[in-house]
């Protein structure tokens, strides 16, 4: 029977149900052909229905069940071997039930790995979606807001703004391309048969995941190999079947190596010791149990016990994996949230901090400073700007003058350590308060403070006080 890609895909999940239903029907006393008729009637998948009808025709033509399953080309060699052994020994139903149990164990192990990875995958996926939403829709708007502020922005904010501008202009191309690239990367690293060894290398070198993968493979090795041998399948055939079942290349190579060595007449002990880095594949404790049970003739029983023991360990490790990944994922999420928050809050904080230095309206036009001489009728104009005014005319202040703080629109005026808007803020003074004038630099006036020595204020908001 010719099996294409789509037929193999459509029958992948229903093969287990077919064997389980066949075992139950044969146990109830129904003959083989009638059992196939019943299964074909209940099968919903068109692909699986086609396979069941094909096998029924083969059986009606005189083929055995194992030959019909082999001709369908959708069942693995070890399943066909078990069915064939059951036909020869008269234990077909028992072997079918053993296959069902084995498949249930495999599905349970896969489900444990999937459940352990579901939470981190969900959190990371949600984080990617939220990040794309922020980058595509929110950042471009923030960019226009911050651009209107004539202040030097923090580097985090500048990076965020440039990213927002870029995505605002090219996001409809970049984001779909990025999603496609990520999907292809996951496919080729973890799924595609020829390149998935890269993903396996990553898993097998990540401490916690490595332990989980190892426990799953040892559980599968013990339970499947033990049951195949108990059913009467030769050790070499069982090992080759195990190599066909596993998807981890490191274990696949090891099982094939064991099969070759055992077929040459070597024991498990010798086969294990001649393989490089065996301890990275199987713990020494498991190896010692296998060697001892091989000598005592109880290998299949010990293998099943190992499989059950490591199945329990797999369940415990999968729970611990989720527990350990939760804080790590929270750190990653909070790092992303914190970066965006800092990029937005830092410039806002800077603006609020400088608000006392910035007038709420346009500053008055520069006026010519008039220097009062000893003769009141003589006034000497000077080109330098002054900060203090008296009756609408700017006057030159001296060290004996008192200046009054003018209204700023925010009910305070920042006093800075140096004559610069970026300098440290020493304190704040209120409109109407009076302080001793010390000196001035263009745009800034230095005043004497009661407790903190002296500081600089914007010259636009001081004037000579009428009261000394």
From TrEMBL:
Keywords: Cell membrane, Membrane, Transmembrane, Transmembrane helix. The keyword Transmembrane helix applies. It is a multi-pass membrane protein. It is found in: Cell membrane. InterPro entries: GspF/PilC (IPR003004), SH3-like_bac-type (IPR003646), T2SS_GspF_dom (IPR018076), T2SS_GspF_sf (IPR042094). Its main location: membrane. Residues 402-466 form the SH3b domain. It comes from the Bacteria. Pfam families: SH3_3 (PF08239), T2SSF (PF00482). PROSITE patterns: SH3B. GO terms for cellular component: plasma membrane. The chain crosses the membrane at residues 117-139, 170-192, 328-352. Belongs to the GSP F family. This is Pilin biogenesis protein. It comes from candidate division WWE3 bacterium GW2011_GWA1_41_8.
